[in-house]
Queue: 3 jobs
Job 1
Amino acid sequence: MRLLSILTAVLVAGFLYFLVLERDTLLGFASGDEDVATEETAPEEAPEEPLVSVVAQRSLAQSVDSAVILRGQTEAARQVEVKSETSGLVVSEPLRKGAEIEAGELLCKLDPGTRPAALAEAKARLAEAEINARAAERLSDDGFASETRVVSARAALQTAQAAVEAAEKEIERLEIRAPFAGLLESDTAELGSLMQPGSPCATVIQLNPIKLVGFVPETEVGRITLGAMAQARLATGQNVVGQVTFLSRSADPLTRTFRLEIEVDNEAEAIRDGQTVEIVVAAEGNSAHLLPQSSMTLDDNGRLGVRLVGEEDKAEFAPVTLLRDTTEGVWLAGLPTEVAVIIAGQEFVTDGVKMDVTYKNEATK
């Protein structure tokens, strides 16, 4: 009787287990559907990972004018500090700085002192030497003077001539004149001041034409040629145009840059010496793509580039060279002629990752 009760309890427990926990299997078994049990016990297949969605832009390379951008300053075409070659007191009224002067105009005049007397003495000695030389030559022709006396007379004559020329040159140095037309950058020497050899009389500058001076990095110097057109913008906002007239063959030993000079017309003399200027020098054109600035990214090595849509819509990194930044976008060189560049979502993919690509201004793929 006890055994029957235990058996009955086991059967009831098994029935309740299948009824509650394995109800679908029990019903399928009761109906003869063996596939239900199989489906319930079969493992579920892993779902496919979703593709990264990106936006790309098709681009065709264009020929774009390249340029070298420099910062520099203006520089006078000529600038010289006119100095005295002799000593004496200044006897001329000073000219004030800023005055326009012509080539050869008198800047400083010195007191002649005893120089006119020295010139008169030199001329008198010259006249005496000429008479002695002629007399010696006549006596030599008649046989009354030796050849040595003739040579000595001729030497004395040449010495007297040199003394006259030196005295005349010394008097010429009393008047200090402008070497070229330009502007006075300083007052001329004041009346009554004592000048010595090397003492400054005035500083003269020439501003027309004016030079724009910049320094080209060694990585860009090969792109610039003599005669190339250049445009510059001054700090005042004024724009000027000129041509490259000089490009140094020797680099600065400290900065490793090369001096560049551009000649610009300055007839109105509105451009001053020493102004800051931004220079754009035209260079040979390049094949480049105009793309949004947001399309640029960096690879693991820190190289600047963009990500392209490759075969089977897989991402590819391509290094680029930035040529110019404009309001419409950036000009990038170093890419094939026709490319599809990812302009949104490139930061979320790496090389070889398959993507869900949507093209800008085109229907979704």
Note: Helices lie at 2-20, 23-31, 34-41, 115-142, 147-172.
Job 2
Amino acid sequence: MDPDKMYELLSGAVSRLPDSSEVTRRQLYAKALTSIENNCRRADGSLDEAMFQTMKRSAEIAAARIEKQFAVKNAATTPNSGPRSASAVEPPRRFAPPDDAPQSAGEYLWLKALGICGAIGTIIDFLKPLASLQSAAFFIGVLLATLCHFAMRLPGATGRRWLKLGRVSGGLVAALMLGLFGMEAVMPGDQPNGLLADTFPPIAALQTRMLNDIQAGLGRVEQTTTAIDATTRETKASADRIEQQTASIADDVRNLADAADPVVAARKAIVAAGFTPDLSGYIAAVSSGSMAQYQFVDTGLPISVEDFEAALLRFRYDTPEFSNFIAGPLVYDSRFRSVRTAFNAVSSNAPKGVLDVSGIFQAACGQGGDSFLDKLYRFNLADQCSDRSAWLEQASGLLKAMGGSLYPRVPTLSLSKG
């Protein structure tokens, strides 16, 4: 991974830290290096040292860049208003003549063109055993001469010296190729090695030696190309593997930043468990007995006491959901202290070991009020109002369910009237 990509990952993680102090940042860097080391281990557990050192170096460069930005941000800077230094003075420009300046006789335009043409013709004739390039050179020469000729006629054209040289050189090359065609047509027999080699034996020996070297070089190039192709495939496979490891490291770095924020971590754990981070999700988590219910405490859910009491009134006292709900973590939240207080206040009315439940009976079966306890009594006890003994048994179960370990010390329930 290159330092720029690592910088994007680390800077993004630092920006999400709730506390971006130097200590917290360095802890994040240390965790990121640990993650890099873990991702650079092979299947047998050994460390890929080369890959680890490369990615570690990228992480160190990115961390140093982030720390430098923090240092610049925190340092008090003052603008420089002094005079420009001598090094900032623009150097004098060197005079250059215009492209269309008059040509001097010493430039020998035609000699240059003839030299270029001769060199091209010699090379093409010398390489004839490898490839016949005369036709290609002819058409290229015609095209070059034509383009340069029309370019010179354009208004405001620059570089006329070069255009003239190109026009003359292209014309000479085309003429030379026509001349070679004509000479080969006139000369008897075939000239597979070219005119120069067939005319001058020393040139033929030099051509043979050089062409053998060229062919040997081409063979080595072909072998090298095959090796490069294999290396390229291996490099691509390594790049794919590094890309996968980079994605894993990126996820690890983002998770490190998210783990530093308890609210974000709690929400992610709730969603991972299959619940929504709201009251309905909490009710579902509590009803199923999932451990995810304890993550809702850190999310700071905006739940009112009325919403919480209404949620509690969804379940009868003798259901597992009711038991889970009143034992859940949010019942002990300071916002819902009134609910626990209402549950515990019932036991204070039994100093002699006997609890008179006439008030509870009146709330459940008579003209009870609209308090939370009144609604809870009606919801759980109203169906047994016609049977005194059954009502007492059900009321006993409700009070014990409400109080948990408090009510075993209340051995008797009495109903004085009703």
Note: The beta strands are 354-356, 412-414.
Job 3
Amino acid sequence: MTDIADAPRAAPRDRRDTKDMAAAPNYDLLAGVSLRVSVEVGSTSMTLADLLAMTEGSVIELDRAATDLLDIYANGTLIAKGEIVSVDGRYGVQIAEVVAPDRGLAGFDRRA
């Protein structure tokens, strides 16, 4: 075979027949994509004057109780809730609840 014209031709495929592709999604294609994962302990609003008045030892009160689950975001989109754990002297977050995709889209809670 020295010419592309001599190559055997594949059977023509109907592009409207995507049933096979939908049945077995190829997640390996996305496996190497990097995401920014962040965890939000809580938040608050304050004036600039209050912020400038802070000194060492000042406490900022957040809008969440210490027993509440933390929000876990991937690229700014809420994906799960979890709690802080300590493993070998380092902090981590144990996932307690994965946010359902329909719930995530309904509220579409996104952080910058």
Note: The first strand starts at residue 37 and ends at 40.
